[in-house]
Specification:
Layout: E1 2-5, E2 13-16, E3 22-24, E4 27-31, H1 34-45, H2 50-64, E5 74-81, E6 86-92, H3 102-107, H4 128-139, H5 144-157, E7 159-160, H6 163-177, E8 198-199, H7 202-214, H8 217-220, H9 223-235, H10 241-245, E9 250-252, E10 255-259, E11 262-266, H11 273-283, H12 296-316, H13 327-330, H14 333-340, E12 363-370, E13 375-381, E14 429-433, E15 465-473, H15 477-491, H16 496-501, E16 505-507, E17 516-519, H17 524-533, E18 537-540, E19 550-556, E20 563-567, E21 574-577
Parallel strand pairs: 17-18
Antiparallel strand pairs: 1-2, 3-20, 4-12, 4-21, 5-6, 5-13, 6-9, 7-8, 10-11, 11-14, 12-13, 14-15, 15-19, 16-17, 19-20
Helix pairs in contact: 1-2, 1-5, 2-5, 5-7, 11-12, 11-14, 11-15, 12-17
């Protein structure tokens, strides 16, 4: 990427990516690993749709990037259906064991500020497998055996490890796998594989084969479940067979806000997607389109909006089965107008307090849009790299440490409790275009050829149509990335690749008066100006740029149906398309 700055005029900034976006009429898959992208494309070539390809790519990522994701973690998805024009939300996150209580932690000497990050008590029921199966059951068109076949081949036959993955694998091998029960299963004689080295995972291939044969029951009952319970008991955990067998995913109404003629969708709490929506509501009151993409004025407004959004989200986001999250009030334009008054265009407010709406009530992200216009925004995570690093013996995957996100304050809405879902950082996003009041378009869905079961291109959208399927992975960076990338796409008019290449900031939300990390390629004049405004900023370089997330974006043209995709340069992946003719 290149950024040229004229020091005599801070507003004269030009930006261009060194990598072209991908255009297609036949579907695009964008992931953080080329082999996972290829797995998704294989499924599209077999006639599968966006849901089928997303699960195939997600399973392949479990093989090729176990440093971030796996069937031992959780997943969320948003699915845009071309035949209805509707977005559905799937919550595939797990719950705390039924025997895990604050009293238990107190008796074990663990009732501190937070659980130790890799302790077996941080393992919540892995929700990914049930989520994959439920997504296919509702929206898919192929069998699980067909969908999981590419990942099974990769695990059985082995694959060459990509460079960035090799770097983080080495860190995880030292940090988690070296001391975790059975962690050696994800190493080569105790060490991480090197870039280009072949890694085989026959245990994970066994796992996928059993799931392909038996569905979710193959994971939550029987030998895999017994291995999960056994290794956690050995490590000092308390998960039971009943905890696993009783797990269910939930289909939920997505939450959304209107932003300058777009509708931006996120999954509802217990996910943190509401953070991005609160921030977008605040930013809608500023003319961001008139500001240069990397100008200090724009960075300042986005940082301030996200600080306010996190001040609310870090308190109010919790399992809605245990706490009445005031979603409608938090996302109202009236609430945004009041909170917006707290933003000083000239000075930073580094420690904002949460508002009081009046209530009536490490990770992989991938995106797929198929040739029919269906879209799947999909995210799957172990949380901290390999999660706990604990491996159910012989099955080739690690168990997540998502429970580390629980509060241990009994007065906090997100306080740990039996069978409760924790605050979740992983969030997919979907964006649609709202019809203009004067364009004569009404209703949803598409115009079809007679008797067609899928849209017959070329066609013109009617009503609310797909604008983008996108996301940015990376802990608490995710809503920050959603806001920055969407503004680059829509306010600045960048293509997906350029929007992803643009330098980013990341607020440390776990630190009082949280510092703001600035990517090394941000103009120095911007960094200096932010410091003068009172932002505690610092520059991040090298491999640590992963702090700024790794995103995937697919846009869709409403007139022609042509897709445009990009993949984040901070990962090993790519966006790719099929060469098949349209059928």
């Amino acid at each position: 990427m290149t950024i040229n700055t004229d020091d005599t005029d801070m507003n004269t900034i030009t930006f261009s990516s060194r990598r072209s976006p991908v255009y297609s009429r036949n579907g695009i898959v964008a992931t953080s690993q080329p082999l996972a992208t290829a797995a998704g494309l294989e499924i599209l070539a077999r006639g599968g749709n966006a849901a089928d390809a997303a699960v195939a790519a997600g399973a392949a990522l479990n093989v090729t990037e176990p440093t971030s994701t796996g069937i031992g973690g959780d997943m969320f998805a948003l699915y845009y259906s071309a035949d209805t024009g509707q977005v559905t939300a799937l919550n595939g996150s797990g719950r705390a064991p039924s025997a895990l209580t604050l009293d238990r932690l107190k008796n074990e000497g663990l009732l501190a500020e937070a659980l130790p990050p890799f302790h077996p008590h941080t393992v919540t029921v892995p929700g990914a497998c049930a989520g994959w199966c439920d997504l296919i059951a509702r929206h898919g068109s192929l069998s699980l055996s067909e969908i999981l076949a590419p990942a099974i081949r990769l695990a059985d036959e082995g694959f060459p490890v990509a460079p960035l993955t090799a770097y983080y694998w080495a860190r995880g091998a030292a940090r988690q796998l070296a001391s975790a029960p059975n962690g050696h299963e994800l190493t080569i004689n105790g060490r991480a594989p090197k870039a280009g080295e072949i890694f085989r995972n026959p245990g994970l291939a066994r796992t996928f084969k059993l799931v392909a044969e038996r569905g979710a029951a193959g994971f939550y009952q029987g030998p895999i479940a017994e291995a999960i319970v056994g290794v956690l008991k050995e490590a000092g955990g308390c998960m039971t067979m009943d905890d696993l067998a009783s797990h269910v995913s939930t289909w939920e109404a997505p939450i959304s806000v209107d932003y300058r003629g777009l509708r931006v969708y996120e999954c509802p709490p217990n996910g943190q997607g509401i953070t991005a929506l609160i921030a977008l509501n605040l930013l809608e009151g500023f003319d961001l389109a008139s500001l240069e993409a990397t100008s200090p004025e724009k960075m300042h407004l986005m940082i301030e909006a996200l600080r306010l959004a996190f001040a609310d989200a870090r308190w109010y986001v919790a399992d809605p089965q245990f706490f009445n999250v005031p979603v409608r009030e938090l996302l109202s334009k009236e609430y945004a107008a009041e909170r917006r008054k707290l933003i000083d265009p000239q000075r930073a407010t580094v420690d904002p307090k949460r508002g009081a709406p009046v209530a009536s009530s490490n990770t992989v992200y991938l995106s797929v849009v198929d040739k029919w216009g269906n879209a799947c925004s999909f995210i799957n995570s172990n949380y901290m790299g390999f999660g706990t690093g604990i491996v159910p013996k012989g099955w080739g995957f690690t168990l997540q440490n998502r429970g580390h996100n629980f509060s241990l304050d009994p007065n906090h809405p997100n306080c740990l409790a039996p069978r409760k879902r924790p605050y979740h950082t992983i969030i997919p996003a979907m964006v649609t275009r709202l019809p203009s009041p004067d364009d004569g378009r009404v209703g949803g869905g598409f115009r079809y050829a007679e008797n067609a079961t899928q849209p017959s291109p070329p066609y013109r959208d009617q009503g609310e149509s797909l604008y983008a399927s996108y996301g940015v992975m990376g802990g608490f960076m995710q809503p920050q990335g959603h806001v920055q990338v969407l503004s680059a796409l829509y306010d600045a008019g960048f293509d997906p690749q350029s929007a992803l290449d643009l330098p980013r900031f990341c607020i440390d939300v776990d630190e009082a008066g949280g510092r703001v990390a600035i990517e090394e390629c941000m103009p120095k004049a911007t960094l200096d100006a932010l410091q003068k405004m009172g932002h505690p900023v610092y520059e991040v370089t090298g491999y640590e740029r992963a702090l700024f997330g790794r995103g995937q974006v697919i846009l869709r043209d409403p007139e022609t149906g042509v897709l445009c995709g990009g993949s984040d340069p901070r990962a090993d992946g790519c966006a790719m398309t099929l060469v098949l003719g349209r059928r």
